[in-house]
Amino acid sequence: MSNHLTDSDFPTAPRYDEAGVGSSKGGAANLAPASDTKTAQQPIIKVQPLKKAEMQPSYAQDLGVDDIEHNFYGSMMNFLGSVAGAMGQFPCCICCPNPFQEVDQGTVGLVTRFGRLYKSVDPGLVRINPFSERLRVVDVKITLIAIPRQTVLTSDNLTVDVDSTLCYHVSNPLRAAFSISNVKNALSERAQTTLRDVIGSRTLQSILTDREAVAQQVAQLVESVSESWGVTVESLLLKDISLSAEVQESLASAATQRRIGDSKVIAARAEVEAAKLMREAADQLSTEAAIQIRQLEALQAMAKTAGSKVIFVPMSLAHQFPQTGVANLGSGSGDKGKGVQGSSGAQPVLNFSEVNTFSQLAG
After folding, report:
1. Burial (CB count <10 Å: 0-12, 13-18, 19+), residue 239
2. What is the pTM of this model?
3. Whose CA is closest to 61, among 174, 170, 183?
4. Which residues form the Band domain (predicted)?
5. What contacts 354, CB < 8 A, 6 or more positions away?
6. Burial of 175 by CB count in 10 Å (0-12 exposed, 13-18 middle, 19+ buried)?
7. How confident is the model over 76-112, as pLDDT tens digits?
8. Which fold has domain 150-169+180-247?
């Protein structure tokens, strides 16, 4: 009898694969499905690999040191720096300077020897001579500077307060480091001056409606000068354009008057249309039959109320009523309760003492 056990001796024993997932050969329940394991192994966020074209461009350049003149002092300092740097590489030698310095990503290192540039280096670890060389780091990332708030007079003699932001990046580290003392201050002053010139040549309405055009014009004018400094302007943003209280009141008053004028124009057009419709209705009702229908409708409406009434009936309708309801008055006398004497003679008067009789006549 063998002392070795095999998988056949345990038909229901679970097996574990490389990922630690249990499986049963004899039909037992698995400890975890394979799909859940794959889902757990997949990362929640897929990180795209970096492309070389998307990384920081290389500014490394060696200008050479052959044309740099050295006298006895320069040669001695260069030699001593090399010796001290060689000893400073060891951490135990704390009395000697470390010749290695770091250049961070997003920056460029400019190495000068006795104050004269002779090479530029990319991000990483750079070795220099601690006695004769210096490392200057230039930031090449996109930088935002806030332009101070300023009050500008427009071409239509209105004052506005403008807040803006300038975005730029260094495209030539050599020029940005050695051709101008302070890039940020120079760009800020240049942007303020250009912004005043551009806004001063426009009206307030043009500034409020074409903010993007104003910003692009200012950015182009600033970039035309900053190219000689080794700086490229990305964009200029007009964050806020504020108006004074007097200007806001005048604009609100102008808008109110404009709305009132528009409402008057609309009302006048409506009156014209109404007059046209009334003219058409008058033309339709000017016939004799239409006039009689309107007169009968008026009499019928008045007869619906209680009580006796005295109504003056036109002569054209006198022959339509029976003589019992009409009293013809003489030219010289008459009954006050039945009629009124006029200068042109007697007028027929209808006394409706019975509403039913009037309704039959009007109907």
Report:
1. exposed
2. 0.55
3. 174
4. 98-255
5. none
6. middle
7. 888 888 888 888 888 777 788 888 999 999 999 999 9
8. Tetrahydropterin Synthase; Chain A (3.30.479)
Locate 123 and state its tokens. 């991000």
At 196, is the secondary structure helix, strand, or coil?
helix
Give the H or E element holding residue 60: none
Contact partners, residue 231, CB within 8 Å, separation at least 6:
168, 169, 170, 171, 172, 176, 183, 187
Taking only the tens place, the pLDDT of each residue in 270-316 is 988 888 888 887 777 777 777 777 777 777 777 776 666 666 666 66
For β-strands 143-153 and 22-24, DSSP reports them as: unpaired
CB 181 within 8 A of CB 135: no
- The residues, ordered by sequence, that sit 6+ positions from 269 with a Cβ below 8 Å of its Cβ are none
Highest mean pLDDT out of 2-6, 15-19, 232-236: 232-236
CB-based contact 160:242 (threshold 8 Å)? yes
Of 352 and 94, more confident:
94
Q: How far apart are CA 247 and CA 245, in angstroms?
A: 5
Nearest Cα to Cα of residue 131 among 68, 189, 177, 88 = 88
Q: How many C-beta atoms surround the C-beta of residue 18 within 10 A?
A: 5
Determine if residue 134 is left, alpha or beta; phi over 0 gives left, psi from -120 to 50 gives alpha, anything else beta. Answer: beta
Say if residues 312 and 347 touch (Cβ distance below 8 Å).
Answer: yes
Residues 323-333: tens digit of each pLDDT: 544 444 333 34
Report d(CA 225, CA 222) in Å as an integer: 6
Tell me the mean pLDDT in the region 56-82.
80
pLDDT at 313: 62
Domain ranges of the chain: 1-33, 61-139, 150-169+180-247, 289-362
DSSP 8-state secondary structure symbol assigned to residue 77:
H
